[in-house]
Amino acid sequence: MKQIERDRFRYSDIEFGRASAEAESYDVPSLLTDGYLDAEGISNEALTGSKFLFLGYKGSGKTSLGKHLFLLSEKNPCFLLSIFFVRFSL
């Protein structure tokens, strides 16, 4: 019985990330490179240039996309990447 308990994971072993993509890119960058979920294929659209402007509400993932691409570009010397973060006020 003790063997089963020892092999179980604990919730404290799971890295859930940070509240913002900025903090996560500095503290745990592997979550934005290896753990980034791109269900819609948006990062590929950004890399191929088919889409180049990403607008959305606060918290919709715009900064995480930018940080994800930036971290990937550091690992791959073939990437040419320009990212601009602009905040608009209404």
Alpha carbon gap, first and last residue: 60 Å
Write down the Rg.
Answer: 17 Å
Report the strand count: 0
In the predicted model, the low-confidence regions spanning at least 5 consecutive residues are: none
- Give the % helix: 40-55%
Order of helices and strands: HHHHH
Shape descriptor: globular
Helices, by number, come to 5
Broad structural category: mainly alpha
Task: Tell me the strand percentage band.
Answer: under 5%
Name the assembly state: single chain
Largest beta-sheet characterization: none
pLDDT averaged residue by residue: 83
Provide a brief overview of the structure.
The protein is an all-alpha fold.
